[in-house]
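Continued from yesterday's entry.
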Amino acid sequence: MAFSYSNISGRALLDTSASVLFQPANAESIALLMVSISQSAHADSLTGTVPSPQWGYGKVDAYAALRAVQATVPRLSLALLTNRQPQVTVTQTIAGWQYVLQSSTSLASWLSVLTNTASTNSLKLLDPDTLTQARFYRVVVP
């Protein structure tokens, strides 16, 4: 199901989407969201040729914009190496962005393990500690 909004609600959509998808939002994530919104916009018989001063890039398809942003959300997989060192593989990364691997034993408090910059769309992160107790992992973009 696709929802279309005119550009009058574009700012509200941007504010809402940015706050939901990127907490806290950084300059790169806001730029990505803005590109996704503008690329999802379409013209019709009411908007005429776009971009235009009245309609901007056209009518925003919020569902398509959010799906485009979701396609860039990092995905994690975990492997335990033979020396019991956890290796977290992050896919759907964006080259040039920094990713911080964090671990937790309780999900209540998180400790930053390491920071790495992606050079491709995939990143392998090694937790320097060997696994002696159950741990949860997440990746955040600073």
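--- second protein ---
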Amino acid sequence: MIFRSSERRGTCDKFAFLRIQKTGSTSFEKLIPRATRGVKDGYADPALWKIWSLPLAHLNYKDIRKENLISCAVTWLRDPVKRLLSEFEQLRNKDQRESNMLDEDQWDYRREQLDILDHIRTNPDRNQALLHFINLPHSPSRNRQALYLLGFERVKCRVTERSNCCGICVKDPNKSLPDNFPGRTYDWDSDGEFYLETAKERLQQLLSFGITDCFEDSLKVMAPKLHWDANIALGYASKMHYRHVDEQDIMLYTNMSRLESKITPGTFEQVEAGIEQVAPDIAQRIRQRNWVDVELVQYAKQLFQERTGIECKST
């Protein structure tokens, strides 16, 4: 069951956030100190540290299991095409602070992959850069949502010219340990069906989960599990969350197409609804390479409807 009984939830000394990149996780992270009862001073408030496992970094299944019950964790899932495009656009962001975040250890790229990321980051041909990103061998971005639900060992801690963050890594002061390779943990091509079923089981073990395509409905369901006032949480969320896509995604969708037809996004809804018309070849390639995540999110929507009676429709 996704939503445990009240007796089971009572065993949660702390809640945990299984935080998957580019699923609306930053919005939810900012919401946590605002919506958590008894917290008045944000992240500095000791009350928050008593209620949540901190830091609210990009923690996967194995990270959480080391210190908490997975039945006390929540997560968010997102359409895999939109999620990957958003990660790509962050890498290409003109704001170096945003772009350089992908060099952080918590984004799971190995040190030797950083040079490849830099080439994708600076390639003047956006379409070519996107194809390189989609097809990057042993990329942690591939099926990232399933990867985080399955869990993996972190890369070694590192300091680079661009990043000295975030300590979500393996400390090796004597430099004697081999580095882990998150993108090689699972053979998606040979054993994808097995990993998909395991990821589904892990999803069921969570206290709750949300789906970015139906953010408000998900938050209404999730709030009571976290002892939040749903109306207060929604009020805060409405001020910080783009319900459909962020501005970076709009830039991507309107510039990456090689087709003659052009879509002018008058609203966020039009951009998301038009993604397949803008770049059907790109979207299909992403779905094929990330088919485990595609199936996982479809399953999550079915399960969400079974448990709540709410249909989460793709936008």
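The radius of gyration is 19 Å. The chain is about 50% helix and 5% strand. Will compare against the first tomorrow.
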